[in-house]
Amino acid sequence: xxxxxxxxxxxxxxxxxxxxxxxxxxxxxxxxxxxxxxxxxxxxxxxxxxxxxxxxxxxxxxxxxxxxxxxxxxxxxxxxxxxxxxxxxxxxxxxxxxxxxxxxxxxxxxxxxxxxxxxxxxxxxxxxxxxxxxxxxxxxxxxxxxxxxxxxxxxxxxx
Length: 159
Fold this sequence. Notes:
By secondary structure, the chain is α+β, with helices and mostly antiparallel strands. It has helices spanning 2-20, 116-126, 136-141, 147-151; strands at 22-30, 41-44, 50-52, 58-65, 67-74, 81-87, 92-98.
């Protein structure tokens, strides 16, 4: 009985030590002009840990496993950057990354099916009620600053 109690205590002590072997990572992501990069994504490779930067470019990851890790940083229009960090137990490591404009992507292609306005017009034509339908794509083409101004362009609507 005493051996079993001693073994259980040793196992719990070992698990507590393993659970405490964690550290934190904080940092900031900046562009080439030293301006904050809000919304940049930061992931620790081969783990489920990740976050995004705040409005001022700062991020913080907590309870990371101890050891060397590859950190991937991505932001729209920039290539993915990978940095190596060493996470130490009960310490906070610091990582500041400057995204380089010279490595910025040359081109971003966004493709769509182009059927949203066609679907909206078909819905309007085939409906038994009198209605006007405007697709989100069409609203985006209007020079208006908000949806209220865009709705003024619908025939028969007074705002």
